[in-house]
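Q: Here's a chain of 113 amino acids. Please give me its 3D structure as tokens.
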Amino acid sequence: DLQSRRIQLPPRELQALRMQITSEVEAEFEEKIGHFEQQVSAEKRRISELQQQMRQQQSAANTREQKLAEEIADLRSGMKDKESAWKRERDELQALADRTVLAESRESLLETK
């Protein structure tokens, strides 16, 4: 029976044993708290690093997006310039064709006279 096996310690020894146990428990608790605080600190640093990486990636993405937008604008402008040039060339060719038809018609009329 446990009750019959109990050791009776003098009050001073009992108090000293309680203080020793309390001290050991507190030391272990403080060690665990210190370890946990180190983990929290490491995680905070990791989060900060990840946030910095995200900001850098977002900045790079924004730069790429801006460059693509500029390239698209340049391409559209170039297309408009080419389209205008093609229209001018078409109009010039049409005018040349019209003059050629007129010249041929005149020649034909002159030949028939």
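Q: Can you summarize the key feature?
A: Helices lie at 2-5, 11-112.
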